[in-house]
Amino acid sequence: MVKIAIAGASSQLARENIDALVATKKHEVIGLIRKDPAQFPSLPGVTWVKAVYDDKSELVRLLQGVEVVMCFFPVHFDPGCATQKRLIDAAVEAGVKRYVPSEWATGTQLESSLDGIPWYAGKVEISRYLEDINKEKKVIQYTKFQVGAFMNYLGHPHKTSNHVNTLGFLFDFEKQHATLLKDRLDDVVVWTTVQDIAGVVARAVEYQGEWPAVGGITGSRVTVGEMLRLGEAIGRPFTVDWLKLEDVSAEERTMERFANFDLHTSPPEEVAAFLNMALKGILLGISRGAYAVTDEWNKILPDYKFTTAEEFLKKVWGSK
Question: What superkingdom does the record give (predicted)?
């Protein structure tokens, strides 16, 4: 049994992970939330606790006896990463053994792509913070779960997970439309289902070896050209809008306008404006390898069977 505290436990991906941990019937989970705990379902082994993240001493108290802390904060909502840094400091003070930063996307090339994906800058800052606090001696073990893109988005509008909402984006199989960079068919995107992310996490908390600092989870490694061919193979060929890399690179992207942006609650016009910016930024990131995630956890868990993009697409959309 592992005692696990989950910060940002009301987030959609956090809920997927909590379900996977509950399914093991092994662990004690503390779901740290900002809302009234009474709003959340009763789950075996799960205690919902209203957390005051501005109070470090209270966080230290809540984390007593906890072995693993996982964070699911949207980093663009945390200026200077102050809240997550306070959580890390509290975990260290409380004697927590392992920490999972709010990563859950992209890969090792993120830093070189921040001009395209500025809303992820906090992930890089937290990575440096964890490196710094372990510089003299290791005070807390951590792994950055890097997963690429959620494969479930390829199934939109079909509901393919219990908690994560999707939208048609990049490759829209419903509308059979894609927006891509010209002459970049060999660019790689790793697609991983949220179920596989949660499945790996549930095994990782029990892993007795040293956690890898870079914790790549590779569900399915697919080039842009291969995804277009998969669309044809299942009878959903794409109409493609081709953009030029130099045009996308020249555009300036900033998060100032979207400081309080939430994909799931913002007005439709804000969502449309953000997605227009995000699509081009993500394409730029893809061209630089930001979504070509490594496979550290695949190697640690060689018996785990990941869902491939082809399997997922055939299940959701049928085969030709």
Answer: Eukaryota
Name the DSSP letter for residue 111.
Answer: G
Strands 28-33 and 46-50: parallel
CA distance linking residue 165 with residue 179, whole number of Å? 21
In sequence order, the 6+-apart residues with CB closer than 8 A to the CB of 269 are: none
236 residue type, one letter: R
Helix (H), strand (E) at residue 245: helix 245-250
Q: Model confidence over 169-207: pLDDT tens digits?
A: 899 999 999 999 999 999 999 999 999 999 999 999 999
- Looking up tokens 């890969």 gives 107
Task: Give the phi and the psi of residue 158 in degrees, each rounded to 5.
Answer: -65, 145
Residue 145 DSSP SS3:
strand
What's the length of the chain? 320
Judged by phi (left if over 0) then psi (alpha if -120 to 50, else beta), residue 92 lies in: alpha
Can you say whether residue 80 is alpha, beta or left, with left for phi > 0 and alpha for psi between -120 and 50 degrees?
Answer: left
**Paired tokens of 315:** 């299940």
- Domains parsed from the chain with CATH numbers: 3-147+193-216 (3.40.50.720), 150-191+220-293+306-317 (3.90.25)
Sheet arrangement for strand 171-172: 171-172, 177-181, 239-243
**Helix and strand numbers, DSSP H then E, in the chain:** 10, 14
CA dist 184 and 280 (Å) reads 14
